Amino acid sequence: MHLVLLSGGSGKRLWPLSNDARSKQFLRVLDDHHQHLSSMVQRVFGQLNTIGLGGSTVIATGKGQVEMLEDQLGKDVPLIVEPERRDTFPAIALAAAYLYSMTDADLDEVVAVLPVDPYVETAFFKRILDLQKLLDDTGADLALMGVKPTYPSEKYGYIVPDKNENNDYIKVDHFTEKPNEALARQLIEKSALWNCGVFAFRLKYIIKKLEALDLPLNYEELSQQFSKLPKISFDYAVVEKAKSIVALPYEGFWKDLGTWNTLTEEMSTQQIGRGIISEDSENTNLINELDLPVTVLGISNAIVAVSPDGILVSDKDQSPRIKEVMKGFDQRPMYEERHWGSYRVIDYTSYSKNHEEVLTKKIKIKAGHNLSYHCHHIRQEVWTIIKGRGRFAENGVIRSIKPGDVVVVPAETLHAIVADEPMELIEVQMGSQLIEEDIKRKYMEWKEIEENCSSVRS
């Protein structure tokens, strides 16, 4: 069996820690077995490795999440990178083409698809393995896994059986999306299951869908023609058209950590980051990513989340409203993690008179890592080194740099930096338009940069 993990999300439900560049699955707020903070995606992949499924797993994601996935999981996990966001059917179709043309997967092999961030016991993933036998036994087009409900939730979709049978599996009649409590009770009485987003099919089932669309089966060719895939969810494109769907019940622990109130229930610590929570602040969590003290006095059942993107103070029961409240609030991510380190926006100013923008960042670069050799067309930069030693490449020349050095990088100047030890620098960008698209990369690896530059002493 091959597993495809879907990694997407725009990062609104756990604002201000999550944003368009750092979705919820990347937040390091959960304890691992070594009492270190880890993310949801790290936790899931650790569980898959425990039962021997890590080596047969690929992750389907967008370009914006590649560096963060590589930073948290390493570069050995195959990533199926969507050239653009086109919903779940194109993502799964591209992953199927990868398995078909880039691996030794057989057309009769079973592929299971699931979200990248379920909060579950390892038994959940062992149960997924049973989907293969279910497809063998029933000959169904699709096999789903559903969670046996523990209460009439209005937050989840339901998988409804065609009739109430006490079998090891159910034949699916239809789906009901987020019913009210009364309807949810009725559905549970009919043995309906929570839809946890897990489904399996034989590889040839999706390959035939691509053939019917007259699209290439080769991964690289399909990637180049990705925009020809219909922008539609897998549910609408495939599930609703399937002739036979079965579902396997899972009765173990499963939880969607998609809101602050559910996430904090699984955190082992009341506080992450600098601050004070008074003893009479019961069931209150503080997560602070800034180097500023935050004091919480006499406030119970609350979440206080502080990041470069903003500050949230909310009653935990009301915290799911954040996605609705933040609708229409458009702001560039103020903090991003990259494979080479991270950066935080310190200040942004726009001067209307001369149409100039100034953006100030604090950049951290891990030892042995480098920024790419690149140039910008419409902005200049000034770098002030505040910690660590490294080497700076500029228009074919490499020189050493140290704390206190200031580097001016005019527009159209090729430049890069490598950290010989952990480095920190302040970057000030100035230009008429400060956008991420204003970059032209020439070399990515420092070895390649060195081969094409000469060195001089500072």
From TrEMBL:
The entry lists its GO molecular-function terms as: mannose-1-phosphate guanylyltransferase (GTP) activity
Q: Which GO terms describe its biological process?
A: GDP-mannose biosynthetic process; polysaccharide metabolic process
Q: Please report the stretch or stretches of sequence annotated as the Nucleotidyl transferase domain.
A: 4-268
Which Pfam families does this UniProt record tie to the protein? MannoseP_isomer, NTP_transferase
Per UniProt, residues of the Mannose-6-phosphate isomerase type II C-terminal domain are 338-441
Superkingdom in the source lineage: Bacteria
Name recorded for this polypeptide: Cupin domain-containing protein
